[in-house]
Structures are given as structure tokens and as C-alpha cells.
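Quick one: C-alpha cells for this chain, please?
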Amino acid sequence: MKETARVSLPALPSVLLAILSVQGGAALAKGLFPLLGAATTTSLRIGLSAVVLGLVVRPRLGQLRPAQWRAVVPYGLALGLMNFLFYLALARVPLGLAVTVEFIGPLGLALVGARRWLEFVWVGLAAAGIGLLTPWSGRGLDLGGLALALAAGGCWAAYIVLSRRTAAVVPGQQGVAIGMLVALLPVLPFGLASGGFQVLTPHLLLLGGLLALFSSVLPFSLELHALKTMPTRTFSILMSLEPVAAALSGWLVLHEQLTLGQWLAVGCIVAASAGATLTARHPAPAVGGE
């Protein structure tokens, strides 16, 4: 009997597709905000992602030891808050800028304990990007939205640290599936209070399913597939393209325009992120961002 040929996507296209999927999902989410609100959209995305992962992974909640719960609960809370804060920011500032500012979180984590002169170059580039984004005149960009994106970036940095701890004590994809369930806890009360679920229709539920697919399920699967063969350093450098992909997605899908100064800010922070990863002693992949 002839063996069925298996089609396996190479690592590089997998990462690029994951980036496009995440940013396309973010654009879809922003389109749902006027109908459902940011809180309900976040709840819908995380809830449906948890359902899909639960069906695929079938997590054994009753078999977790106390030490494993102590790892997975903070991990899930960081995941939920990261997504919620990012969507709140996205409701107030353009997609490309929200992702750019959020990227300061993992960038700052990569530069903690900087000692070499080259590392301070990346700090300077990131600072220049922040300076270019700041509306010094007091007009223009929403400062509250930028602050929310920065808070989401802080949660992203915490998520990276906590995901390492969870992966070390919870086998396979159990930690991710359980963490997604926990991620719903800090978000769902806001989603219910906002009243967005009251206007939910089958059409909106379908869009929520697509959001969960493009923002969580598909990119996560593609990233894990790529990490099987791609060096961590290469993966992390490619993930630095997220802000550029976000800006382009915002322009193409949401018709959001960035000024020249804002594009320069995106470029500065992307260069700082890629440079910090390239020169880091032990780079960590920033999997599972917004």
C-alpha cells in the first residue's frame, strides 16, 4: 500500500503566517468593538479558545498537584490580563501603535541587567521610539490608550517568565489549555457587566470563533510547529516584525494611517527588539502575544 504523502509547512512560512494571523485577528477584533465592546470581545476570544483547546488537549484538572496550580494560575491570569488590556488599548489607538508600545514589555525583559555598550544602544533606540510616539503637544494620540498598551506589554513580559515556569512543571499542552481557562476569570466579569453578550447573534458568534481561530489557535499551532526546527534566536528576531505587520494590517483592513514620525517609532522599536534578541546571551521566544 502506498504511504500517504504528508505536507509539512517549513518553519519560516509558519512564523510569517502566524504573525499575519495574529494581526489579522486583531483587526477583526477591533471591528467587533462597536458591536460588542472590548471586554465582551476579549471574553469571547478567550472563552472560545479555551473550548477549542479543551476539546483538543482534554486537560486533566483533577490530577494537577498544588505546585502545578501555583505555576499555571499566575500564568493564566497574566495571559487574560494581557489580552484584555491590549484590547482596551486597541479601542483607543491605532493597531500598529498599540502593538509597538506593547512590544516594549518583552523588549524590556530582554534588556534587564544590560551591561554591554551594544545593549544600551537598543535601550536608546527603544527610548527614541517612545519619544516619537509621545504627543508632546498634549494633542493627538490618546495617552490613556498608550498607557494601557504599555500595561499589556508588562503583562506580556510576566507571561513570558511565567510560561517558562509552567512549561517546566506541567507536561505537554496541558498548561496552555488550563491557563486559557484561568485567563477567562479576570476578563469574564467585565464582559458580562458591559452588556455585550446581550446583543450576541449567531453571526457575531461565528466572527468570535474566527477571532479565536486567527488570534489564538492557529498562530499558537504554527509557532509551536516552527519552534521544533527553527532556532529560538531566529524565531525571536522574526517575531520582532509584529509591529510592522500590525501597522500594515491596520492600514489595509482598518484604514488607519500613521504619520511619518509614528512609522519611525515603529522602526526604532522593531530594530531595538531585533537587535536585543540578536545580541542576547539566551534569547527567549515571545510566543503568544496579544
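The chain has one domain: 11-279.
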